[in-house]
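Input (structure):
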Protein backbone atom coordinates (compact mmCIF):
# COMPACT_ATOMS: atom_id res chain seq x y z
CA UNK A 1 0.00 0.00 0.00
CA UNK A 2 2.80 2.47 0.84
CA UNK A 3 4.44 2.01 -2.54
CA UNK A 4 1.20 2.79 -4.38
CA UNK A 5 0.73 5.92 -2.28
CA UNK A 6 4.28 7.04 -3.03
CA UNK A 7 3.89 6.45 -6.77
CA UNK A 8 0.60 8.35 -6.80
CA UNK A 9 2.24 11.27 -4.99
CA UNK A 10 5.13 11.31 -7.47
CA UNK A 11 2.73 11.26 -10.44
CA UNK A 12 0.78 14.15 -8.92
CA UNK A 13 3.95 16.16 -8.28
CA UNK A 14 5.22 15.46 -11.81
CA UNK A 15 2.12 17.09 -13.31
CA UNK A 16 2.06 20.21 -11.08
CA UNK A 17 3.89 23.42 -12.05
CA UNK A 18 7.55 23.72 -11.10
CA UNK A 19 8.87 26.94 -9.47
CA UNK A 20 11.08 29.11 -11.75
CA UNK A 21 14.27 28.44 -9.77
CA UNK A 22 13.84 24.69 -10.16
CA UNK A 23 13.02 25.08 -13.86
CA UNK A 24 16.42 26.74 -14.34
CA UNK A 25 18.06 24.10 -12.16
CA UNK A 26 16.46 21.39 -14.30
CA UNK A 27 17.84 23.00 -17.46
CA UNK A 28 21.31 23.09 -15.91
CA UNK A 29 20.92 19.42 -15.03
CA UNK A 30 20.00 18.59 -18.62
CA UNK A 31 23.06 20.46 -19.87
CA UNK A 32 25.33 18.59 -17.44
CA UNK A 33 23.82 15.26 -18.46
CA UNK A 34 24.19 16.14 -22.14
CA UNK A 35 27.84 17.13 -21.79
CA UNK A 36 28.61 14.01 -19.77
CA UNK A 37 26.80 11.77 -22.25
CA UNK A 38 28.54 13.39 -25.21
CA UNK A 39 31.96 12.86 -23.67
CA UNK A 40 31.20 9.24 -22.77
CA UNK A 41 29.96 8.40 -26.26
CA UNK A 42 32.71 10.24 -28.15
CA UNK A 43 34.27 7.97 -30.80
CA UNK A 44 37.82 8.94 -29.81
CA UNK A 45 40.18 7.78 -27.09
CA UNK A 46 39.66 9.88 -23.97
CA UNK A 47 41.82 9.90 -20.80
CA UNK A 48 40.44 7.88 -17.90
CA UNK A 49 40.11 10.95 -15.67
CA UNK A 50 37.95 12.73 -18.21
CA UNK A 51 35.79 9.64 -18.66
CA UNK A 52 35.31 9.41 -14.90
CA UNK A 53 34.43 13.10 -14.68
CA UNK A 54 31.95 12.67 -17.55
CA UNK A 55 30.27 9.84 -15.65
CA UNK A 56 29.92 12.08 -12.61
CA UNK A 57 28.53 14.91 -14.77
CA UNK A 58 25.98 12.57 -16.28
CA UNK A 59 24.92 11.22 -12.89
CA UNK A 60 24.70 14.66 -11.29
CA UNK A 61 22.73 16.02 -14.23
CA UNK A 62 20.18 13.22 -14.11
CA UNK A 63 19.73 13.56 -10.34
CA UNK A 64 19.39 17.36 -10.45
CA UNK A 65 16.88 17.17 -13.29
CA UNK A 66 14.81 14.47 -11.59
CA UNK A 67 14.65 16.26 -8.25
CA UNK A 68 13.83 19.62 -9.80
CA UNK A 69 11.02 18.04 -11.84
CA UNK A 70 9.15 16.74 -8.78
CA UNK A 71 9.59 19.96 -6.77
CA UNK A 72 6.30 21.83 -6.58
CA UNK A 73 5.36 25.33 -5.52
CA UNK A 74 3.09 25.04 -2.49
CA UNK A 75 2.70 26.98 0.75
CA UNK A 76 4.27 25.57 3.88
CA UNK A 77 1.93 23.69 6.17
CA UNK A 78 2.17 24.59 9.84
CA UNK A 79 2.14 21.80 12.40
CA UNK A 80 -0.39 22.41 15.12
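Output (sequence):
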Amino acid sequence: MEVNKLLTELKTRWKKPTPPFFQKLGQIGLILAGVGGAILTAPVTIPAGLTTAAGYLLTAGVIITSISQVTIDSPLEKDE
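Notes: The first helix runs from residue 2 to 15. The chain has a mean pLDDT of 88.
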